[in-house]
Amino acid sequence: MDDLRDKYIGLIADAADEAAIEDLRVQAVGKKGEIALKMRELGKMTPEERQVMGPKLNALKDEINSALSAKKSSLADAALEERLKTEWLDVTLPGRGRRQGSIHPISQVTEEVTAIFADMGFAVAEGPQIETDWYNFDALNIPGHHPARAEMDTFYTHRAEGDNRPPHVLRTHTSPVQIRSMEKTGAPTRIICPGRVYRADYDQTHTPMFHQVEGLAIDKDISMANLKWVLEEFLTAFFGTTVKTRFRASHFPFTEPSAEVDIQCSWEDGSVKVGEGDDWLEVLGSGMVHPKVLAAGGIDANEYQGFAFGIGIDRLAMLKYGIPDLRAFFDSDLRWLRHYGFASLDQPTLHGGLVR
Ligand code: DAH
């Protein structure tokens, strides 16, 4: 037994790594190791012998086990010591600078528009970008045969063979949110809905995805005069200068009467200035909500009326910040983003520059 002890204590002391320790553990105290073999011999001994040898063997097993774990942890300590010598970190070095991102002009203008309308008591509503044709067209008084459907260059989703339901569309305007919010909150209501819209069109002033902000106000005593005031207040606050407007009679299926609104501007050397000169630029469509649209939204047109408008956000951003090409908005060119982008702390607020 002493030989066995000396042998293993020596081998453990000389073990070079954790793998060697594991081998020794299997050889000495494993299920088929030398101690186990000795334990088996206990069966052949007399009870007296067994009483002496049993505890001795157990003690030997314990001794070897603790030598194994002591060696194991001293090997681990040595390995850590070695790593600490080669790996080090100079915490006094200056940090690596990261370039700051910027707020996209569309996001900035959306925030500006929202701040101005929020101040006039409009809440922000949202709707899905993938719409049913009912919300995008029918509920807005654009029936199946109406030319507006064809004119809008709609993106349709795919339906499986044999599925005859009308396909969903990528919403072509934010107007369906009018219906959704009437259904949700009823009348009276005052909301705007900024968001993405889609049409299959691409040139210097059209991209297949662009942005609109819809407005809707419904109450018992709403007239075209309220619409005009709200829009003029908005345009003046947004452009930071008194903006002359021109309401031109127009036609939209969802409003009656309808008006397109132009703002006063000047064109000089190919760049446009708002609030001066004697040119006009169209910026939005608007009108009094059609009774059929109120009915589609579940509102009694005999009791309530309202106005609505739809503004192109991208167009507003181009005008206010002098951005000539719409397509550049969506090119993700870092140089462009750094030039036209806004600092994250440049939050648009009424007290911080938006006038009202
Ligand atoms: N939905 C129209 C478009 O995308 C814009 C519009 C016009 C919205 C008149 C309105 C409105 O709410 O009253 O061309």
Question: What can you see in these coordinates?
Answer:
- By secondary structure, the chain is an alpha+beta fold.
- The chain has 2 domains: 2-86; 105-340, 2-Layer Sandwich (BirA Bifunctional Protein, domain 2), CATH 3.30.930.
- 41% of the residues lie in helices and 20% in strands.
- The protein is built from 12 helices and 10 strands.
- The strands form 2 sheets. Strands 1, 4, 5, 6, 7, 8, 9 and 10 form an 8-stranded mixed sheet that branches. A two-stranded antiparallel sheet has the order 2-3.
- The longest helix has 40 residues, at 47-86.
- The protein is elongated.
- The N and C termini lie far apart (98 Å).
- The mean pLDDT is 91.
- It binds 3,4-dihydroxyphenylalanine (DAH).
- Residues 173, 175, 214, 252, 255, 285-287, 308-310 line the site of 3,4-dihydroxyphenylalanine.
